[in-house]
Design a protein that fits this description.
434 Repressor (Amino-terminal Domain)
Length: about 100
């Protein structure tokens, strides 16, 4: 399964608790959504993927924004999403400091 599909599944479970609930709120047939999550979203229309990603606050991937989404990256995102606001602030602060250190900033 591709990483975007995995990220969408993770966020649906985290934010909506079930595919059924998410499909109802989005107005997307549950069968369409279930099929996309089972087979991968690459077969789903781009407009539907954009709607899903925007609803889940996932930045829509484009060819102009190359990103590497491997298992390690997904695990970091899962852990970050599970933190409270204080934890997220701490991680973002440390990340910014390390980014600046590594990029001579």
């Amino acid at each position: 399964m591709d990483t975007l599909t995995e990220l969408i599944q993770t966020e649906i479970k985290r934010q909506y608790k079930s595919v059924r609930q998410f499909s109802i709120e989005m107005g997307i047939p549950q069968t369409t959504l279930a099929s996309a999550l089972k087979k991968g979203v690459e077969g789903t229309s781009y407009a539907t993927i954009v709607r899903i990603c925007e609803a889940l606050d996932i930045k829509v991937p484009t060819t102009y924004m190359p990103m590497r989404m491997d298992e390690e990256s997904l695990e970091l995102i899962r852990k970050l999403n599970s933190l409270d606001e204080r934890g997220k602030h701490t991680v973002k602060t440390i990340l910014e400091m390390e980014y600046n250190r590594c990029n001579n900033g």
